[in-house]
């Protein structure tokens, strides 16, 4: 079935006891297994059946089935946040003495986790500037490589096929953070990635009403991530979030089309404005990563970044003058959002790391919502005029 059909139907069965079409929200921490023998069999993995909601909950199971279908994965697991997804993957699949590689830049929280926390577990962390840099300088002992195909916040494009090809040669596990493009536009598993992960907080949810993480991929790897995430670290998704997320995902293909169309209009407008020093949007034919995204994805996403002249002060004048865009971190909501990454999402990085990653003080990140593009452009035009 096609993606729009799967988004609506996958993982959803009428409730056997009532016929309710929507999966109920199972607010329960534990499950009665009835007899001591059944309890023993469930804990030994001999009988199926729920035990305890930190391990599994029927609302989450239905969502996992929907997400696995959208990603073309054997299995998916849902967890409490995108950071819970990243840390669970890395702790489950690497150990002391291993190396983890990532392509700069990544979300600031991911960067801080890898550089500041993971290294304390005795894992070496190496960053590369691009897929080409990884191909040239990679270490043969890399155990896992993580990248964002369209990076946060600079909208740089990373060639996923190149990374997967190099990783195969050295036997490294490939993990694609597909938060920006979503399976509606790009399915990393279909080109050979081992795992795909998301901050489900963003486009998958789409409504800015929850925090969520998703990992999907190869069955044995997901089993290992599941054990670490749910049994050891203990970061399950709650049933309320699982319900809201499955509801959001039903409209993902529709919403992504609106985000992509609006972002293209906004990027084309910004390109013409004298106050704007640079526009970063992979949908512009002038963007260096345009061809790579055009060949592997069915759209360019809803994120646009721009550089102004005049650092934080000019960015603040622009941001403070916006009326329709909310000044907020996060992204992928139906509402348009704007932020200054160097002082917010990427503030935890050192200035040197930010410089290296291209997160300058002139950079503004826009998450383009699904409002009417004319209204968004009018808001941006007015705010640009307020820069001294
Ligand atoms: C690309 C990307 N990955 C991961 C995360 C972390 O997700 P969460 O905030 O749901 O923990 C974010 C958050 O902004 C993100 O943008």
What brief labels describe this structure?
2 domains; alpha/beta; binds pyridoxal-5'-phosphate; 15 helices; single chain; Aspartate Aminotransferase, domain 2; 388 residues; Aspartate Aminotransferase, domain 1; 12 strands; five-stranded mixed beta sheet
Structure description:
With 388 residues, this protein is α/β, with parallel strands linked by helices. The chain has 2 domains: 3-249, Aspartate Aminotransferase, domain 2 (3-Layer(aba) Sandwich); 252-385, Aspartate Aminotransferase, domain 1. 40% of the residues lie in helices and 15% in strands. The protein has a 7-stranded mixed β-sheet, with helices on both faces. Strands 8-9-12-11-10 form a 5-stranded mixed β-sheet. Helix 4 packs across helix 9 (219-233), helix 6 (131-137) packs parallel to helix 7 (160-170) and helix 11 runs parallel beside helix 15 (373-385). The model has no long low-confidence stretch (mean pLDDT 97). It binds pyridoxal-5'-phosphate. The site of pyridoxal-5'-phosphate has 14 residues, from helix 4 and helix 5.
SSE map:
Elements: H1 3-9, H2 36-43, H3 58-71, E1 75-79, H4 82-93, E2 99-103, H5 108-117, E3 124-128, H6 131-137, E4 142-147, H7 160-170, E5 173-177, H8 182-185, E6 195-199, E7 213-217, H9 219-233, H10 239-249, H11 252-271, E8 276-280, H12 290-296, E9 303-308, H13 311-321, E10 326-327, E11 337-339, H14 351-357, E12 363-367, H15 373-385
Parallel strand pairs: 2-3, 2-4, 4-5, 5-6, 10-11
Antiparallel strand pairs: 1-7, 6-7, 8-9, 9-12, 11-12
The structure holds pyridoxal-5'-phosphate.
